[in-house]
Amino acid sequence: MNIFLAFFVLLVSSQHILGDEKVRYDDFKVYRLTPKTVQAVEALRNLEDSNSEYDFWTAVRGVGYPVDIMVAPHLKYRFNDIINSGEFDAEVYISDVQELIDNERPKTRLAGIVDWTDYNTLDEINDWLRSLVDEYPDNVSLVKAGTSYENREILGVKVVFNPGNEDRTVFIESNIHAREWISSAVTTWILNQLLTSKDTNVRQIADTHDWYFVPVFNPDGFVYSHTTDRMWRKTRVPYFLCAGADPNRNWGYYFNTGGSSSNPCSETYGGPSAFSEPSTKTLFEFITTIGPKLGAYIAFHSYSQLMLLPYGYSSSHLDNYQDLYNVGVKAASSLSQKYGTKFQVGNIVELLYVASGGSMDWVKGTFKTPITYTYELRDTGRYGFILPADQIIPSAEETLDSFVTLLQEFDKIKKN
């Protein structure tokens, strides 16, 4: 056995040995750096591409756009050299990541209960989905949308209230990135509202569409983020030295044409090939069976408060971009009414960065699905991925308000 293979085996073995120990982030800080020059932008991009020691919570966009970077305590002085170069405006945005993690969830909770006052585990979410089939047998059926590398089922539900809506099918995706817990919390709350709400507008969109909800697209990573590392993002497929690929860079539409890394230790590693991850491959196979019927595909992420439009590989305004943008602006206005939360609307590349190989791009490019959005939910960085659980319901309420507007406004476009 050569030395590199031996080291890899030792590394993987140590991950299993230490699997029950939770990673802690004591004194880890999140810095917000705003580059002042083109040279500073390039320096940050090089740092993001070449160095896995720093965790870029948001990507590098350009001069004047802030970038959130988590820095370990032992790297503090080295990072201060970057700050002191004079090329950046800098501030400490989160002074202790572990403190946020410790205060993210209620101090007491009833295990197994899904009531959106706390974040739920995969088992709790899946048990709740199964319970809906028993509670609403005429409307809800369980679907197995895929299987993960660690052989976990990717479960979802199909919801039908009235016959004849097959060509108005809405597919809801969340938690393709493991640490973005707010995404599945919001989508399961919306699912519950479609089943229980008496609100006229909610009932109108519920009753005139068929629905698929798959709350956790990345179950292995999601479980790992609960049991071991709260900040885990990727899948858990083992690669040389590091585990996991970014499942939202792994879809086979303009795969690896920009915005993904070839470094397996990078948070944006796209994988060795399109659909290399068992979760994305099996989800692709499932969605293909219903793709021609899709009227809408909505993906949920966090954070940044954005409504993103296709495509992630190009800033060109392709397909029905103008309709998506116009309706998105109206939806963002509806979202802001309840709590004043402001969302920006626009193309992925223009608002963020090049990010090829995403699930929404694949659906849009393959099936020309007319309604395609990716929500980046609360907040804008004060809590980042560690959004307190008491913001679940407010975030979900405002999102549903926007969702009603999306579907109703597209109905008007279709009628005209």
Number of helices: 13
Flag low-confidence runs.
1-19
Average pLDDT, rounded to a whole number, is 93
Summarize the helix and strand pattern as letters.
Answer: HEHEEHEHHEEEHHEHHEEHEHHEH
Principal-axes geometry comes out as globular
InterPro entries: CARBOXYPEPT_ZN_2, M14A-like_propep, M14A_act_pep, Peptidase_M14
Organism: Tenebrio molitor (Yellow mealworm beetle)
Subcellular location: Secreted
Family: Belongs to the peptidase M14 family.
Characterise this structure.
The chain has 416 residues and is an alpha/beta fold. It has two domains: 29-103, Alpha-Beta Plaits, CATH 3.30.70.340; 122-415, Aminopeptidase (3-Layer(aba) Sandwich). The protein is 38% helix and 17% strand. It contains 13 helices and twelve strands. The chain has helices at residues 3-17, 38-50, 76-83, 97-102, 122-135, 181-196, 200-207, 219-227, 278-290, 321-339, 348-351, 359-367, 392-415, and strands at residues 29-35, 55-56, 67-71, 88-94, 140-147, 153-159, 169-174, 210-214, 294-302, 306-309, 344-347, 371-377. The strands form two sheets. It has an eight-stranded mixed sheet, sandwiched between helices. Strands 2-3-1-4 form a four-stranded antiparallel sheet. α10 (321-339) links the parallel β10 (306-309) and β11. The termini are far apart. Residues 1-19 have low confidence and may be disordered.
